[in-house]
UniProtKB/TrEMBL annotation:
It comes from Lichenicoccus roseus. GO terms for molecular function: 2',3'-cyclic-nucleotide 3'-phosphodiesterase activity; RNA 2',3'-cyclic 3'-phosphodiesterase activity. A motif (HXTX 1) lies at residues 36-39. The lineage of its organism: Bacteria, Pseudomonadati, Pseudomonadota, Alphaproteobacteria, Acetobacterales. Its EC number is 3.1.4.58. The keyword Hydrolase applies. This is RNA 2',3'-cyclic phosphodiesterase.
Length: 177
């Protein structure tokens, strides 16, 4: 199964992000149910490995914390704009949690993540959207801010590739004290 570790977004944050969707010709918006904040992409894992991952994640101790949305931006791949995202206000507890997850997974043999952690929620795939339209959208939404919401757990998700969109399934929640 294909796995990743993420924060399942609390409803007020999900609703706020859902309201941003629209008015950008060609954008493929993330369905509301799929909105999440990835902490660590894992990839394919067999049953035995999935159990080891679950075991390692279960041993992580951390406290709940609060998060707020902050700004929007674009990622590029091979010089081409590919995704539109909402940013997350700088958060030490979030960085600490991500660090603990990374350490735990590397300890059981997963290759280290080389990309620097950039907390974000992917809003849309935009590889076919015209650059000027993207720039206008970003300008209009760059001041995005939200109320802080409480994060009480993180989640191991499985991901099934669908025809149009992947289907994410929460496999295990790990409570933060
Ligand atoms: O949270 P975002 O949307 O940035 O793009 C995938 C998504 O990221 C990413 O993992 C998240 C949950 O699916 N992803 C998919 N395949 C990947 C890969 N091979 C990947 N990240 C790194 N390497």
């Amino acid at each position: 199964m294909r796995l990743f570790v993420a924060l399942d977004l609390p409803d007020p944050m999900r609703e706020r992000l859902t309201r941003l969707a629209g008015s950008l010709a060609g954008a493929r918006w993330t369905p509301p149910a799929n909105l999440h904040l990835t902490l660590r992409f894992i990839g394919e894992a067999d049953r035995v490995m999935a159990e080891e991952i679950d075991h390692a994640l279960s041993a992580i101790r951390g406290r709940g914390f609060k998060l707020a949305l902050c700004g929007t931006g674009l990622f590029t791949r091979s010089g081409k704009t590919c995704s539109l995202w909402a940013g997350i206000e700088a958060s030490e507890p979030l960085e600490r949690l991500q660090g603990k997850i990374e350490t735990a997974l590397v300890r059981i043999g997963l290759p280290p993540e080389r990309k620097r952690f950039k907390p974000h929620v992917t809003l849309a795939r935009v590889d076919t959207v015209a650059e000027p339209a993207l720039a206008t959208w970003i300008q209009a939404h760059n001041l995005l801010r939200s109320e802080s919401v409480a994060i009480t757990h993180f989640t191991l998700f499985s991901s099934l590739r669908g025809k149009e969109q992947a289907v994410y399934h929460p496999e295990v929640d790990y409570e933060l004290g």
